[in-house]
Hints:
The protein is α/β, with parallel strands linked by helices. The protein has one domain (6-238): Rossmann fold. It is 48% helix and 15% strand. Strands 3-2-1-4-5-6-7 form a seven-stranded parallel sheet, sandwiched between helices.
Amino acid sequence: MFDGRVALVTGGTRGIGAAITTMLARQGAGVAAGYHRGREGAEAMQRSLDGDATRVSCHQGRVDDPTDCERVVGEVLDRFGRIDYLVNNAGITLDKTVRKMTHEDWENVLGVNLFGAFCMTKAVIEHMIERGSGRIVNISSVIGQTGNVGQANYAASKAGMVGFTKSLALETARRGITVNVVAPGFIATEMVGQMPPAALDAVIEKIPQRRLGRPDEVARVVSFLLEDDSSYITGAVFNVNGGLDM
């Protein structure tokens, strides 16, 4: 499906990002998976792809560091010669109520989740404009739409991605570039698995489908948005949350 195309997926070696990397590689794309920490985990993810691993490269860097973003994009272009797709997936949480949240907690989450999406987009956008085509998918969250106790920083960062997406979509619509958002709900990843069992059970009770989502269910929507036939979809938000927020 994506033979000859190249995707850059930030946070692409764990959780939802690993599912996106895996799906795109198995659909024929070359995939550059970005990560900040955990080289062993990145290498293990790559090995798990077996024959498809030859289409995957892993790149260490911080998405909230513009210099790192430029370097990673340069590495990807050196290896693959092009970048067709950017998936801004990297994200962190530092949960506390606003009364207990420090300025550093706020800045770190906004830095990685929102500034990081800006930095990586900034690093690839001229390349896409020069080529006259591109797909950008930003991974937001249901929490950016509903808010959540103890997650004001995370909610603000994920809501900000929606506004960023819509603005960028308007700016690039005539350049052959689409920009969209996928907003997952509670997905069975390591991040969600760190929730206290009682809190997780309470969340599942609120989900109409009464289950967590799977990372591959998010990856499938990302893949759809990257297809050539999805060229008339831009500035849209796709919810993958089991009916938690409609």
